[in-house]
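Raw record, unedited: Dihydroorotate dehydrogenase (quinone)
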Amino acid sequence: MYSLIRQGLLGTGKSRELSLKALKIYGNLPFKGKIPENPVSVMGIQFKNPIGLAAGLDINGEAIDGLGRLGFGFIEVGTVTPKAETNYPHLETTRLHRAKGIIHRHGGNNLGIDAVIENVSSAEYKGVVGINIGKNADTSLDASWDDYQICLQKAYQFAHYITVNLDEQADSEWTEHLLKSLKHEQFLLSQKYRSYKPLVIKLSPDLTADEIAQIADSLVRHNIDGVIAGNGTLSREMVGGVKNAEQAGRLSGKPLHSLNNQFIRQLAHALNGKIPIVGCGGVHSVPSAQEKINAGASLIQLYSGFILQGSSLIQQLATGVEVK
């Protein structure tokens, strides 16, 4: 079954939608999948195992139960915006067969925060769910705080943690304002609901050493709860000469492995153990995941590895990775 779903997830538009619908149906079948046990506590949250699904696959939270049955210890949905986005070109992917990588282009369409919250709240999945939030395309950077605030307020009750992407926001003054505003809103919401939900920042592996040091200092000063390292890369250095590698988009999959490990090590050094790291990028085996843990990560997220290899990889990682 998964081989058919995988082909759809590697595709675009309708084929991708059909694969997510198939996963949704799988989640509604009258039997219960079991999440492999390898418990770890991170950010004050108890995870059944340290292997999660990265944002970008189940953007609208429509297939949480089906994905959960495959064994993920946590699932991150999104990126989701205040209003629905429908005008982006469909997500396009190019598979680099020889390099075991995928280039992703476009994307950004989502049903909006209200629809996603409805899906998340109705899911029966017993693992951890994170919601990745962003701004609408027609919202200027200067006015983007309102979009983040709307999403944070609406997601707070229903997510175990909330993630904000910073990989395209290089302005340090804007970042400082955003982090301060997010933490203030988090405090108000924690008082209102008498429940603390961690705030996680997702960073790009393309950051320079100076940028890593700068953002790490900001994350620590603002008491950010967690950081995801990282996202797809714009670099093609690791796939030089590979057919179709020159195509535009973010590269993910096995070619990202070494770059991401270096990023995790640099970030872990800069954070000095004060903020936990989620390693995301290039995981394709138990040893590759263990390298990320050894480099400083506390949790692992899958994206391309899951699409290319299927649920067997989740099971192997969930029980094979030794968490610290």
